[in-house]
Structure formats: C-alpha cells, structure tokens
C-alpha cells in the first residue's frame, strides 16, 4: 500500500462510523419518546400530577405542598419540553450527498466525481456526513440528558409530595 492510498478498510470504517452515529440518533429519539410518553401518562393518570396545575393548591396549600407542587409542575413541564426538543428537526449548515434535503446541490458534484473515478470524494462524503451526524447526535443527547434529569426530578418531587400530603386530613 502506498502513502495516501484509500483502502477498503477505510471505506468500511467510515461507513461503520456513519451507521453507528445514525443508530445513536435513532436511540436518542426513542429515549425521548419513552420519556415523553411516561410524562404524559403520569400527568393524565395521576391526580397529584394534575393537581400541581390547579391554582387552588397554591392559594390554599401549606408551604411544603406549594413548594413541592411547584417543583413537580416545573420538572414535568421541562422534561416534556426537553423530550420534544430532542425530536425537532435540526438545521446544520454543512451537508453531504447522503442527506436527501441537499441532494439537488450535490447531484452534479457526485456525477462529476463518478466520471473521474474520484475515490477521495466518496471518502470525504462519508467523513463529512459523520461530522454532521456527530453534531446532531451530541445535540440530541444533550436534550435527552436534560429530559431524563427532569424525569428523575419529577419522580423525586412526586414521591416527596405524596409523603407530605399523605398525613394531611
């Protein structure tokens, strides 16, 4: 092998990187869907969950109930919002021929590279696409992490609220 020669191993590795990043993006979307579904089911099925959005709880409740209810309301809303932010479409300035949305801009370049037999073009497309997928995955996982923390805080606030209100008449 000469220096600068692109071998099949590099192509396979670049493809694998793209596949792994794409799978990680799908996994983050699935995690967000689970968190969103759990939070929505919790708010619909739990009387305590619904009551934290009732103004009378704050107007007539004790300070611990008010504090925990507010924490539960904020945590549950933020968790749902962060889960939604995971699945929102991303706008990335960089694109490749592997993204359907930018195919019209890349088709001619692809055809020219194919006519020249430009192997380097193909590897560069895989590498550039890996950069884009990596950025998308990092953005999504940041919001998944925040949604999960919101979920944990929701559960904690809910349990504490139940313990606090359980002993009240």
From TrEMBL:
GO terms for cellular component: plasma membrane. InterPro entries: PycTM_dom. It is found in: Cell membrane. Keywords: Antiviral defense, Cell membrane, Membrane, Nucleotide-binding, Transmembrane, Transmembrane helix. GO terms for biological process: defense response to virus. Its main location: membrane. The chain crosses the membrane at residues 32-47, 67-88, 143-163. One of its GO terms (molecular function) is nucleotide binding. Residues 13-163 form the Pycsar effector protein domain. This is Pycsar effector protein domain-containing protein.
